[in-house]
Amino acid sequence: MKTTVLTVALALALSAGMAQQNSRDKFQRYLPIIEKGSLAQKDSLASALVAEVKSFKNEQDFRTNINILRALEKEEQQAAVEAIAAKKYPKGAITRDAFITNVYYKAGSAQEKEKAYLQLTKKWPAKNFPEELLTYDYVLGSLSQSFANDGNADKAVHYLGEMKERFWRGNGYIPVGKILLAAGDTATAAPILKTAMEDSYYYISLPEDQKDNKAKFASMGYASSLSAYVGILVAQKKYSEALGYIEKGLQVAPEQADGLAMVYYKSLLGTGRKLEAYNILTRLYAKGQFAVEEDLKKLYTELNGSAQGYDNFNASLKEELKQYIRTHIQEMATFKAAPDFELLNLKGEKVSLASLKGKVVVLDFWATWCQPCVRSFPGMKAAQESYANDKEVQFLFINTWERDKKYKENVVAFMTKNNYPFEVLYDDQKDPQTGEVMAAKYGVKGIPAKFIIDKEGNIRYSLTGSSPNVDYIKLEMRELIEAAKKAHKG
């Protein structure tokens, strides 16, 4: 009997694997139309996808077509296929996912979300979807964060404990731990962050031939969880213990040195290893972390016996950073005409690129759900403020790729809450020929994405991603803008 069960389980796993592969192959087959097809091609493909569902014999085929229709942004056809699938598979993955999207994620309070989660697990228990446990972990992570934000640590910890996928746990554990830590509940936060740290360490220290995509994902959170947990130890003056974790971590993940630098130097300082701490501070300062200047000057004075020469030393570090940025931005250099646009701002006013000719324009493509975008905004605010009196420079923040139908309300609320004085434009005007939004015309593949456009309307620099370091962003933007000001065609 046991052998039969194992054989059936293996057959199901292989079948699921083949179905997923077929789904990926079909999506890839239509990717050129999704990305570069004309509106007519997209309409034709959407009609064909809807027509063929009549012959489908399994739910996975429905899900594949739904995903392609979603990528094509054909909401009406997508809804039609979902309705057919829902009747055919009322307790299947499609109706489950619709419930999560339309009921759970639209619930307001933590209590309402909990009620929705209990409904979810009653009608669509996780045991019925053994290959999709991550779907439930997404919900659990969100639910735990809601309770943590409400100050209900017990419920937050309870739902974290229900997460099944170890490689994903850190994604739920780290935010909850940091929320509780910020609220002063160190006793509850510490073991949560320690668990996330130890999970990441497990994956990051695996032999290379055992590091699959799950392991690589899990290891990405190592610096964040380690830094947060060690920060607790440093606050408790447990410097030696903190150093033990950091140096153990750097043995298996030396590339995490920058992410751990702040807690590392504090731990070294706490154990009297001043020269090593000074060397780390010097590297931090030279990379634009000017917030460490007070500690750097103090250590410089202690190690040299006086502050004599510090000002020149400080200036040399800043000049070193400027030279690094100037070299680095050459990798971002390009020269092509910027696609024109006319988009609406938060007030409903039209703003066009053509109307800004004669100015250097900084475009920043972003979304409210994009954490790297959000983390870069304090730096972008500082950069914009440094050009407040320069009439030759205009910053535009292009809100794109939003997932919520109430995105306009969300954007306004986000800007108001954070007091960002940005000129925000909505990237929701689709080209009548291609169906593309402006981000696609600019070739945006990931956000945040920034483009520096010269006074003649040419893109001079483009970059994807951003540092969260305010001082670095401010310096980088200045170098990019000033270079674009001086640029000449050719």
Strand content: 5-15%
**Total individual domains:** 4
**Total number of β-strand segments?**
8
CATH superfamily of the largest domain: Glutaredoxin
* Number of helices, counting only DSSP H or I runs of 4 residues or more: 21
Structural class: alpha+beta
Biggest sheet details: 8 strands, mixed
CATH architecture of the largest domain: 3-Layer(aba) Sandwich
**Overall geometry:** globular
Walk me through the topology.
Layout: H1 2-36, H2 39-51, H3 59-72, H4 75-88, H5 93-104, H6 110-123, H7 133-149, H8 153-160, H9 166-182, H10 186-204, H11 213-219, H12 222-235, H13 239-252, H14 257-270, H15 274-286, H16 293-304, H17 310-329, E1 333-337, E2 342-345, E3 350-352, E4 360-366, H18 371-386, E5 393-399, H19 407-418, E6 424-426, H20 438-441, E7 449-453, E8 458-464, H21 470-486
Parallel strand pairs: 4-5, 5-6
Antiparallel strand pairs: 1-8, 2-3, 2-6, 4-7, 7-8
Helix pairs in contact: 1-3, 2-3, 3-4, 5-6, 6-7, 7-8, 7-9, 9-10, 9-11, 10-11, 10-12, 12-13, 12-14, 13-14, 14-15, 15-16, 17-21, 18-21
Structure in words:
- This protein has helices spanning 2-36, 39-51, 59-72, 75-88, 93-104, 110-123, 133-149, 153-160, 166-182, 186-204, 213-219, 222-235, 239-252, 257-270, 274-286, 293-304, 310-329, 371-386, 407-418, 438-441, 470-486; strands at 333-337, 342-345, 350-352, 360-366, 393-399, 424-426, 449-453, 458-464.
- The protein is α+β, with helices and mostly antiparallel strands and 490 residues long.
- It has 4 domains: 2-89; 93-220, Serine Threonine Protein Phosphatase 5, Tetratricopeptide repeat; 223-308, Alpha Horseshoe (Serine Threonine Protein Phosphatase 5, Tetratricopeptide repeat), CATH 1.25.40; 332-486, Glutaredoxin (3-Layer(aba) Sandwich).
- It has an 8-stranded mixed beta sheet with strand order 1-8-7-4-5-6-2-3.
- Helix 7 (133-149) runs antiparallel to helix 8 (153-160).
- The termini are far apart.
